[in-house]
Amino acid sequence: MIEVARLRATLRVLAPVVVAAAACLAVPLAQEPPAATDTEAAPERADRVRDAYDPTVPAGAVRGYIEACRAGDYVGAAAFLNLESIAAAEREQRGPELARRLKIVLDRKLWIHYEQLSEQPQGDLDDGLPDDLERIPGSEEVQVFLERLPDDQGRRVWKFSASTVERIPALYDRYGYGPLGDLLPPSMFELRFLEIQLWQWIGLVLSVFLAYLLSWVVVQVIYRVARPFVERTETKLDDRLLQTLLPPVRLGIAVLFFTIGSYLLRLSLPAYELLAGIEKALAVIAVTWLALRAVDVASNVARERLVEADNRSAMAVLPLGRRVVKVFLLAIAVLAALQNLGFNITGLVAGLGVGGLAVALAAQKTIANLFGGVSLVTDQPVRVGDVCRFAGDKVGTVETIGLRSTRVRTLDRSLLTIPNADFSDMLLENLAVRDKMRLYTMLGLRYETTPDQLRYVLAGLRRLLAEHPRIDAEPARVRFVGFGASSLDLELFAYVLTNDWAEFLKIREDVYLRLMDVVEQSGTGFAFPSQTLYLGRDGGLDAERSRAAERKVREWRERGELPFPDFPPGAVEDFRDTADYPPRGSAPPRDEGGES
Predict the structure, then answer these.
(1) What's the rounded Cα separation, in Å, for the pair 5 and 343?
(2) Between the CA atoms of 198, 202, 205 and 207, what dihedral angle is there, to the nearest 10 degrees?
(3) What is the pTM of this model?
(4) Strand pairing class (387-390; 429-430)
(5) pLDDT of 267-303, one tens digit each?
(6) Which of 21, 82, 167, 259 has the fewest Cβ atoms surrounding its Cβ within 10 A?
């Protein structure tokens, strides 16, 4: 309810300011009587109006009438009306009142634009009307005419036509202030600011407060009526919607009540159109606010369900999808609000289309990061919460994948922010999706190790891997792989049945400790880079075995069977597959079923 509290605070601040402003505007009314009640100076004011605006052209006559009404000089304004249809004895009394009522009708239904009026004495000759008749454009609902008449100075001047004057009472009954115009004092109608009269300003302030209070009452009623039904349901979605959506609903209800109140104030056409645009913009804001809050509720509920289902891939897409939906809703709302405020969004959209290329060139990196984020979410090489290796040797946990960048928490607990375009191009190793983890090491035994000791170590380590419950025994192997510079090298390879790094470290530690026990039991030890200097008498070569080897080679040469560069034809077939393998004394091999 933070938004409601802010609205209350704002209204508390604005209320005394508006009341004080209304009081200040009302002060001059008590000091200066309305100009319309001063009948003694009426002829002089009418003369000033005639002199200021040329009534011989339609535009000048209308300007003179409008400015006289704005100055409160309805006697002077009546000089621009053709009062021939009214008895001469009543013209002086009824003329100013008719001029005032016509101004009210024009304000509400026919706002006059001077540039649309003719500046020629003969008027617009192409309007299809008689030469001495002119129609004021702007409204088909209220049609007002001017006619050209001779005045007491022998000039031909333009005045509001007699037919228009005859229809003023009917037009006022339909579009005027009604009984309110008779009940309120004239001072309420005389003072204007921004073409809004004093009583209308007061009405607008009251409309704001009434709309606020009525919206609060309606929302409270809705909450108290809906709450028992919501509490009976098993799902929590309706509870969250009821709590979350009440502030935007209240704003929408307040806008509705204010719209009704502003319509009853009978504002002038420009003021009414401006307020209508503001009301529509506020309605768009309320609907957008409602939609954004609904998106938040829906995404939170969806996240909870995905957590229960352990659907991490969908959870990674959810935050980015929520942001995209919100950005789209805000863009639509901004365009709708601008249109309701009178801006030409067609030109704006066209301008965006024309300038799109320039924006794209200027925002290449931003667009690349945006598409990089989309590729990360759709392809999912890593997801939020995954541990990954990136940039060669860096390891961290993915915390967020945003529209512009990805944030990774490293093992040092620092937070790296990487642009999506760069992160998506990296070689990413997802450590979290492994079903098992590799255990690999090279063992170096001392060169003093005898062959049988080496066989003992190999057998013991193979048995160790087969016995361990957390080692996948099927691909596990331990092999004597070579003679190193200072050691006999054994390769140990196996898979640990876990994908948790902490648990893997525990299992690896256990295997290494058991491995040390096997080596110790064999009587040998681990080698380390060293050089050993032996001091002793050289026994030389075995002379008997040397003579036997040389004699054998001479026989091969005499028989033409010297196996260099290759064995003679047929010789390979005589000794193929005759080696004792597996070595004599080995356990019988297992068949495919695992039985010996």
Answers:
(1) 32
(2) -120
(3) 0.47
(4) antiparallel
(5) 766 777 777 778 888 888 888 888 888 888 888 877 7
(6) 21
